MKRN2 opposite strand protein
Amino acid sequence: MDPGILCFRHCTIKSVFCKTIPEVCPLCQELIVNFNIEPFRIPYPFRNATGQPTSIVIKPSCGTFLDDYNINDLLHIGVVNSNGKLYEFDKYGLIINNVSQWTNCIAIQVVPTSWDYYWDEILNAMTQDIKWKSINYDKNTMNCFNFVREFLHKLNYNNLQFENGEDMCKKLILPKLHEAIRYITLYKNLKDNRYFISD
């Protein structure tokens, strides 16, 4: 759920982050009449997977991004088809539509809607492959990242070919994860404080 983080500038070039706009500036202690930068809401980076058709989705392996995630934690990754159905691979094998754990994830749109049919076709073909049975799962060599990487390889769209899981993380996941981490940092700073000041 979006906690509604706001940002504004009043008396300096420093940004004030908060959940409600105060009457008095926390920096200069003056009554706020005008703003250097009008208050705006920081975009919430997390989505419900079922509302993100034709996307790659990422979440922490345990817990949620806002309350539990640490940069050293493992991530879990899946694929959403054009109808919002989720496909993921873990120690239980290929799982389809276990959406309850994917209500606050990072969604990455990688193809235009004109690719929806082909996207679904590739996913459906992969569900028939015995490679994605639970017996083949290995947390290091045959995991959710291998599933998504193979899916993207078979999709063969533009520059979505990755040498390995590390390459996929660096080029596809990290840019979106950095946005999310900035938001998480703001959220954690505002958990016990009314304001957070930043340059």
Notes: The CA atoms of residues 1 and 104 lie 8 Å apart. The helical segments are 65-68, 116-127, 144-155, 165-191. The mean pLDDT is 93. The chain is about 30% helix and 20% strand.
